[in-house]
Each structure stands twice: as C-alpha cells, then as structure tokens.
Amino acid sequence: MLAVSDTMPPTDDRLKPKAGNESYIALVWRRLRRSWTGMGGLVLVILLLLMSIFAEFIAPVDPKATDTGFSPPQVMSFHDKDGNFVFQPRVYALADSDQLDPVTFQPVVGPDYDHPNLLGFFVKGADYNLFGLIPGDRHLFGSVDGQPVHFLGTDKFGRDVLSRAIYGSRVSLMIALTVVFIVTVVGTTVGMVSGYFGGAFDTWVQRFVELVLAFPQLPLYLALTSLIPVTAPTNVFLAFVIIVMSALGWAQMSREVRGKTLALARIDYVKAAMAVGATDRRIILQHIFPNVMSHVIVTVTLAIPSVVLLESFLGFLGFAVKPPLISWGLMLQDTSTYSVIGSYPWILSPVAFVLITVFAFNALGDGLRDAVDPY
After folding, report:
1. Total domains present in the chain
2. Residue 311 has what pLDDT?
3. CATH number at residue 333
4. Is pLDDT larger for residue 59 or for residue 290?
5. What is the mean pLDDT of residues 217-239?
6. Comparing 22-26, 59-63, 287-291, 303-307, which segment has the lowest mean pLDDT?
7. Contacts of 329 (CB under 8 A, 6+ apart)
8. Same domain, 143 and 278
9. pTM for the full model?
10. In what order do the strands lie in the sheet with 85-100?
11. Are residues 227 and 259 in the same domain?
12. Last residue of some domain: 152, 181, 196?
C-alpha cells in the first residue's frame, strides 16, 4: 500500500500562497508599484518636498542678493574658449565686448571666455541657517569660486530666478498642504457625521453646505484678502490666506464624503454593529471612517494641485502672499505685460515649477485611484 505522500505530485514552494493575509496598505502599494505614472508622480512629489525642506542647501544663490537686472540665463558648457571638450562644466559670464552694435551703437554683450566660472557640487556659497538652527555655507551645486551663477537668469531687481523659485516652493507647497489638511479634516468630519445621523440634522447641514458652494469663489477670495492691511505682519497675512482658502474649500469634500457615508450606513456590518449596541462614535470611527479613507486619500492628492494653481493665480493678481515672502505666484507678477515677456521670457520659469507640481500630484492621485479601487 502506497503512502499518501508517495501519491501526491511534487509541489513548488513558489506556488504556495503566502502565510497570512496581506494588509490593505500592502495591497495598495503592490498595485501602485505597477503603475509607472503613479510611481513617477510619487518620485516627483518626494523630490518637490525635499526641495522645499532643504531650500537653503539646494538654492545656488541667496534669493535676496541682487545683480544685473534682467540678466539672461547662463548656459552650462563643457567646452573651453578654444572649443576643446573639458570634463568639469562651466558657465561664462556676460561682458561688454569691444565691438559696437551697428544700429544702437551700444557695446555688444557676449560671453567672457577668459574668465569661466567652474561648476561643482557641495560648493561654498552664501551663508544660511538650515531650519533656522543649523548654520552652513555649503550648497548642492554652484560656482566653485563662490561667484553667483544664474541658471534661469535674474528678475528686474537682479535676483536669481532659480533660487527664488526653489525658495518659493516652500511657501506655495506649505499653503497647499495646510489648506488641504484643514479642508480634509473639516470636510471629512462634517460629511461623515451628516451622512450617518441623517434626518433633520443632515438637512440643515446640507443647506449650509449648499450655501457655501453657491458663493462665487474668485470674487470672494479677492474681497477677503483685500481686507488685510498692507502693514500687517507676513505671518498674519499668510494665516489669513490659508483660512480664506480653507473656509471656501471644505464644502465639496463634505458633500463627497457624505455620499460615501450614506452608502456605507446601509451595509450589513454597520447594521450589525448598531444591533449589538455599538456607540455612534465607535461606528463612525471603526466602521465608516476606514472605508471612506480610500476616497479621501485620492481626493487629497487631486486637491493639492488645485490649491497650488489657485495660490499662483491669486499671487499673480497680487492677492496672495506679500514680500518678503517668496511664492511662485508672487514671482509671476513680473509677467503682467507682453513687452516684459517678449524681452525677458526667462521670468516665466516659475510656470514650469507649477506645471511639474500639478503633474506630479495628479499622476500620484491617478495611480492611487487605480490602486485603491479594487479594494
């Protein structure tokens, strides 16, 4: 008589199911890794956050230092003045030549090949205090001899556009993340409570939500932000902008979460929890909240680009942050005339940072939506 083990076909350990069940986060992460757009967006988001956190170290020049106004971008080169290839990159500063323009009779400006600025990593530059505590003078990249290098040119005051854009990411992303956090907390709480209790309470809450949604947001933004005195401290102005954006943005999130809660409140396990005497607080936190989080996470990643665009638009109109703060919208105020854009197109560089940020969060949100949906 054959043993049972002799009659069973050989099995491969790789075909056996893994011990235990994968967690919800592990399932979402496994599916997200298969989406190249979602992973690309995640990498860009991480890089943007690191850039805003370590802006002092990454920016090659002090954003407040002045130089020649409206200086064009300096192009990195791997060739010396004789045209020979060199391994160490360099830029050539612009200088007046001996030749005169035949029309304007002004000196022709060209690259100064006799005095190249060698480039490198972890070079010494302007002093700074990282996080306001750690003094330092090392920068991620820049000129080896400490001379200012303007990879994206300078603005009308001679300030480096690239360094200001890197510093501006800190304010723009901070506003976006803070506004979205407040909107998420308030909108999710109001939506879950309103949808769960229903009845007259839900009716009155939804009428208030509809009132908030009915306001024309752009005129209201302009009216509220214009109430702040020009002499107000920058922190007060920044806090008021965040409060205004949050007060007008939570209603849509509340309406979406309420719809999810209404559907979840009719599911059997919620009714079973009610039948065994679970408190309303426990049902909302333990049964409804985890099931609406997937929708909330995706909505958050898609809401951040909207706030970044709104801040840039209001900053362009002069109704967002004020100097000495730096934001992408504030930098775009210099592009208000066609003549300036036509003569100095490099001042549109902050638009590229806004587009990259919008693409990164939208790609991450799209990948998260596909990863969360099956679970």
Report:
1. 2
2. 84
3. 1.10.3720.10
4. 59
5. 74
6. 22-26
7. 172, 311, 312, 313, 314, 315, 316, 320, 321
8. no
9. 0.82
10. 77-79, 85-100, 107-130, 134-143
11. yes
12. 152
